[in-house]
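User: Can you model how coenzyme A sits in this protein?
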Amino acid sequence: MISESILQGEKVRLRPVEENDLPHFVGWLADREVTRWLAAMGDPPTLDDEYEWYERRRSDPDSVMWSIETVEGRLAGNVELRLSAQPRRAEIGIAIHDKTLWGQGLGTDAVRLVLAYAFEELELNRVELTTDEANERAIRCYEKCGFVREGLLRQHRFIDGQFGNTLMMSVLREEWAKSQPRAAVRRAV
Ligand SMILES: CC(C)(COP(=O)(O)OP(=O)(O)OC[C@H]1O[C@@H](n2cnc3c(N)ncnc32)[C@H](O)[C@@H]1OP(=O)(O)O)[C@@H](O)C(=O)NCCC(=O)NCCS
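Assistant: Here's the modeled complex, given as structure tokens:
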């Protein structure tokens, strides 16, 4: 489902994904420097692929998805919470597609907002993710948000002709409640 909530942080605003976003995603997802970190990515998507993806997500009750934009309103990427069949558990997936915006704290702000939403609005108990062990920027971002390293799936990915390890990380409700500054979640819709 495309979230109807707008979450306002210090550096980003999370808002519903719009059809107008899709051509931007297609352009960015043609860049291997961006997609090499995205486990689910095969060939670069076409605009038709993105429409199909958008429609699938809209009708999927187990997926909550937002577009990420800067506070100035510049589209930056998207973030998704995928609810598990297990009670009160979800996986987060994020991509700042516009690589000129990497390393400016947008990812950290977006993940904190989604965690606040997950634990406070949805009352989840655990949020997890997997990432490429070599994705140091992402790992640092997740650790800043309270995720801890849980385990390593060895030679789990095949990227650019090589096997690579996948890191499993999670944050539990009790840890998050103790450690994180409360993100400013404002419901505008
Ligand atoms: C991963 C991603 C969401 C992080 O968002 P971001 O806005 O770039 O990250 P932030 O600026 O909030 O935080 C990054 C941190 O990593 C640090 N960092 C950057 N490059 C690094 C590197 N090579 N090694 C270690 N740390 C690094 C930054 O300095 C920053 O830490 P700091 O605030 O302590 O200085 C974003 O870069 C992205 O979408 N990348 C491409 C797709 C991707 O990797 N998605 C995640 C798949 S699991």
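A couple of observations from the model: The longest strand covers residues 148-159. Residues 143 and 172 are 13 Å apart (CA to CA).
User: Helpful, thanks.
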